[in-house]
Amino acid sequence: MKKTLFALACGSLLATSAFAQSSVTLYGIADVSIRYSSNTNDSNSSVIRMTDGAISQSRWGIKGSEDLGGGLKGVFRLENGFSLDNGSNNSSSSFFNRMAYVGLEGNFGAVTLGRQHSAIHDFLLDFDPLTVGNYEENAYYVGMYPIRVNNQIKYAGSFGGLNVIAGYGFGEQAGNATAGRYMGTMVTYKAGPFGFGGAYQQSRGGGNAGSAVTLGGTDSDKLTNWAVGATYTVGALKAAAGYQDHRMKESIGGTFKTNVWYAGLTYNVTPALALTGAGYYSRPKDEVPGLADQKGKRYTLVALAEYSLSKRTQVYGTVDYTNVKDLALGDLNNAGKTSLDKNRTNVGIGIRHIF
């Protein structure tokens, strides 16, 4: 009996020691808003609805690390996105639809494997004035590139002000290493008040797209995205500006292009109150062999006010206006809509809690 108690005590001590070197954290964001939108149907009627947050998508996740010694850690993250208005998951095909990866982290950086952000998305999270807005009208360009990539092996390293990311997503198609393949890289540098950098990525059709972006069924279908941007911070004011280029080339012929310019300012009026203004201008162009090119224009203006009730709870209000022309008309009008709207105004208020 004494031997049994001694063994149990030793096992308990060992378990406690091992646990002390590891950490597992439950985290998330609960964000919901009430939003007014104009010109939503053929009668140009408005609608008021409860929907997702203006800037951040609601999510919950588990992340953890284990100290392996010598500055090396084992790390993992599992993250699910959901909608607070009805409690539904954002994806019916995968539970951890936002991120799911495991890897090693050390002085060299981190190498992780699984479903992870693409290079362009990592870049825009730092260089977009809205940190990539969540409302469709504020973040329409997100649909032009894979946000997250399945089957990705990814490296991320920070060295002083230099940040580097490189990723490769396996297409997993037998006999064709190109089909479904993803490759991406990002380089940014921050020195004093300045920050600048760029990102590039390419995705092939016929397999793993890893996002809402739909490519064709062959490896000749190719989606290429690149972006550059800069930030400048002085006191309570931060300015951001950049350019994006998105090109989808199809094997059947033709290329769809979109250029996006953006700029914005964020001013912290007080430690609790932040005001942001941002503008986005894009020019879509559809090139089809033997036919005249189709062109369009779109611009979106956004104003956002955020007030922190505590370190974890915020309330906010936002107003945005979008105008579209020609090829861009489809951005505000569903297929089959007979009365095409050229503009839309949205007003929203919401609450966000971070845990």
Characterization of this structure:
With 355 residues, the chain is mainly β. It has a single domain (23-354), classed as Porin (Beta Barrel). Helix content is 8%, strand content 55%. It contains 2 helices and 17 strands. The chain has helices at 2-20, 119-127; strands at 22-37, 47-52, 59-69, 72-81, 99-106, 109-117, 148-159, 162-169, 182-191, 194-204, 222-234, 237-249, 255-268, 273-287, 294-308, 313-326, 343-354. A hairpin with a 2-residue loop joins strand 3 (59-69) and strand 4 (72-81). The longest helix is centred in the first third of the chain and has 19 residues, at 2-20. It is globular, with a radius of gyration of 23 Å. The two termini are 45 Å apart. Residues 1-20 and 209-214 have low confidence and may be disordered.
